[in-house]
Amino acid sequence: MATILAIESSCDETSASICKDGKILSNIIATQAVHEKYGGVVPELASRAHQQNIIPVVVEAILAAKVSKKDIEAVAFTRGPGLLGSLLVGTSFAKGFALALNVPLIEINHMHAHILAHFIDDPKPAFPFLCLTVSGGHTQIILVKDYFDIEIVGETTDDAAGEAFDKTAKILGLPYPGGPLVDKQARLGNPHAFNFPEPQIPGLNFSFSGLKTSILYFVRDHKKLDPDFVQNNMTDICASVQYRIVTILLNKLKKAAKQYNISHVAIAGGVSANSGLRDLLTETAAKENWQIYIPAFEYCTDNAAMIAIAGYYKYIHGDFVGQDVSPLARMDF
Amino acid sequence: MNKLVSALTELPALARKLLLFAGEHRVLVFYGEMGTGKTTFIKALCKELGVAATVSSPTFSIVNEYEYPQGLVYHFDFYRLKDQSEAFDMGYEEYFYSGEYCFIEWPEKIPDLIPDQVVRVDLELAANNGRVITAKIQGRDINKDIVSNV
Predict the structure, then answer these.
(1) Torsion angle defined by CA atoms of residues B28, B34, B39 and B42, in that order, rounded to the nearest 10 degrees
(2) Is B117 on the interface with A (CB under 8 A)?
(3) Number of separate domains in chain B
(4) Chief subcellular site (chain B) (predicted)?
């Protein structure tokens, strides 16, 4: 019924995906392997990197899907939110490609796509469900009533959860971004060794900035008594910080589930790989009688497959945009 | 001269003073270690300007964009830049010379790209977990300080 090419370039990753009738045929993210094949390096950031990456990843996505350019019936792209320069590359490419093939264009909201990533593989969540999207840049609880009827019911008022992990790593002298390293250390430590305060934020919103500061004070004060405090207690500190970040997330999620009387709960975003979050989510689900949904990791971080699946549902609805579309750094649902 | 801040409730008044002090200057650079309250103070500045949206950390996104009644605010965080050239790649000039407010965290990551005339704000940890906030116009002969009372 529909073969869709999808482009994602909202932040660091350049990615392209081919989706046929709601099934993902390929999902290519600019990696060392792609660069080795086509030359060039892997830059960390920026639109120039996207410019270098976009054609190789699209070519690779088409080849890996074993389709031809002529089979493509629509082009979906991330319109926002994100870095304007980065978004421009993907948007311009998508517009040019769609114009050349004379096929419709579909604009996608990146954060919306993170939620619709749950519809790539089975089991797919039942409506209505709550989705906790946690990454280096975002922390949101979203009430999903239908594919396109969604509402942010809680979000961070300062740092994102992933940022809290990364900055904790930095305070502890681990490399930045060090979220996964904190997780690794935390698995070996006692989560109740140290007690970090849970911020009292009204409603379903989050705050991680105060936690960051309290970790900073904690480390500073203990170092005065023992200069090797961090090295000697690394696993326990990481476990205790991780426990606090994860309980902040889960406590708000529990509150949201009660408030909206919902038992289907999903997580998305790069932080959903965190073992502490997965463990506590599973434990909470058993107690609260939740049905939980965690997408495959490749669909949690930024990727074009989620743009493709979102594009598929928009294609079914005939929801297209014209060539006059431009990217948006800020984009509401 | 500088201002000792011992409670978050003092930030709105200080934000108002800083905006007055900055006058026509639209680029403000914020120096301070992690956890000294750069984002928190910028949130207060945005609120004073009348930004309605939630102002959150741009560490991951590098720049966040907000509307206020008279224009736009660009809130930067260059923390995760590995090289100044990455700021070139994101088109930093388009923002810095747009005439809109630019609040910049971790300007030390882009030492050669900071415009000639900026307002420099320094944040430091003080006793009892207070903060000392200092501001001056950088790039001129005169160094005006923002407040004199402690």
Answers:
(1) -30
(2) no
(3) 1
(4) cytoplasm
Of B87, B15, B4, B77, nearest to B46 by C-alpha is: B15
Spatial distance between the Cα atoms of A87 and A15, rounded to a whole number of angstroms: 12
Residues of B in contact with A114 (CB under 8 A): none
Residue B147 lies in a domain: no
CA A142/CA A134 separation, integer angstroms: 11
* pLDDT tens digits, A150-209: 999 999 999 999 999 999 998 999 987 788 999 999 999 999 999 999 999 999 999 999
| Domains, chain A, ordered by start | 3-115+300-316 (3.30.420.40), 125-295 (3.30.420.40)
Assess if residue B145 is contained within a domain: no
Domain assignment present for B150? no
Contact between chains at A158 and B43 (C-beta distance less than 8 A): yes
Task: Report ipTM (2 d.p.).
Answer: 0.76
For residue B145, the distance in angstroms to the closest alpha carbon of chain A comes to 27
Spatial contact of B3 and B149, defined as CB atoms under 8 Å apart: yes
CATH for B125:
3.40.50.300
Q: Ramachandran region of residue A109, left (φ > 0), alpha (ψ -120 to 50) or beta?
A: beta
Condensed to tens digits (0 to 9), the pLDDT of residues A284-316 reads 999 999 999 999 989 998 899 999 999 999 999
Question: What's the CA dihedral at B134, B139, B141, B147 to 10 degrees?
Answer: -20
CA proximity to A246, closest of A182, A295, A202:
A182
Please enumerate, as own/partner, the contacts of B43-49 that have beta carbons within 8 Å and a separation of 24 or more.
B43/A158, B44/B11, B44/B12, B44/B14, B44/B15, B45/B15, B45/B18, B45/B19, B45/B103, B46/B73, B46/B75, B46/B103, B47/B12, B47/B15, B48/B12, B48/B15, B48/B16, B48/B19, B49/B19, B49/B73, B49/B101
Decide if A47 and B40 are in contact by the 8 Å CB cutoff: no
Residue B146 lies in a domain: no
* In chain A, beta strands by DSSP E: 3-8, 15-20, 23-29, 74-80, 105-109, 129-134, 139-146, 149-155, 264-268, 291-293
- For residue A11, what is the DSSP state? S
CB atoms B57 and A82 under 8 Å: no
Report which of residues B97 and A175 the model is more confident about: B97
Q: What 3-state class would DSSP assign to A265?
A: strand
